[in-house]
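Exam revision sheet. Question 4 asks you to relate a sequence to its structure. Input first:
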Amino acid sequence: MHQSPLHDEYAAYEGIRMIDFGGWELPVHFAAGIVAEHHAVRQKAGLFDISHMGECMVTGPGASEYLDYLVTNSVAAMEDGQLVYTLMCYPNGTVVDDLIVYRLGPDEYWVVMNAANTEKDLAWITRDNPKAASKDTGIEIVDFSPHTTQLALQGPLAEKILAKVCPDAPKLTFFRFLPDTLVAGMRCMVSRNGYTGEDGFEIYCDNEHAVLLWRALIEAGNEFGMLPCGLGARDTLRLEAKLPLYGHEISDGITPLEANLGVFVKLEKSDFCGKEALSEQHLRGIPRSLRGIEMLDPSVPRNGYRVYLGEADIGFVTSGTKSPTLGIFCGYVLIDRNCGLSFGDTVEVEIHGKRRKARLVKTPFYKRTPRRSE
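Answer key, structure tokens:
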């Protein structure tokens, strides 16, 4: 099982619980527990170790055009110091993975991949996609995952905390990054983004600095009530904010249009892998739609549970939880669009062999109040 560069550091934390997550041994929660960590991020701040994520560098003449073909969003329109969320699709329009792409320069990009997909993504980027054989031989793709630590500092007080050890951090606006800056005296790349629905930063450093960087951020956050956080809170936070998780809201069986991620699919681009299939789906009608539900019969709707309208099986649950912020049982369902359902209408979710009532609701379940500068 893979281990984070911080694995030995966790031995000092009492009450921590480690789990196997996609072949990585990672904390699901620390002593405070999932709910307390969730509230800390919503109200103050939390620090996550997300070193399981994959990273690669794509460089060389033609790197921009090549990446622009591989993903649905527009790489060609990016500026230096900007990052974008995007999806990488198969020719049939379903999803290889969702990515964050950082532009360091016109011929230099940093690509962040999901942990469980890193090997598959690298194979697709380098050799398995339809244009791999014809790509410019000057393009170089290097996997930095084994050498890179990634931390996420998230919450309304994240800027104040990071500013104590990185004076340049407050200069960053949303989805911008500093490619080379000092954090507690260590050289890091810092971006303003996250996966929680809150303001925050993601910080990259070499593995050799991982423990010192973690300790410096923990110390900086102590006076603000920041907590170390695990995967449990990361999942409840992203779910409330309607941030997709691969294998749930998006997968090799779900298209971005079905997942309501059309804003990240630039059909006006001259070409990208999956464009023909997605354009046809857009024109003919998207067959399924991702919708939010609130359970009327209290119970957790979990991934894969079937959804019914009367006796008709109309889809399945992609994710569900009891929202720590709202105190409701809620989740997302991927259902047929031809059912004629509207917000407030009732469906049933089969949970442990019994039908439980739920109503369709608007999402995201939680949306933060932006800062004045956003």
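Marking note for examiners. Helices lie at 34-43, 63-70, 118-128, 158-165, 210-222, 231-240, 275-284.
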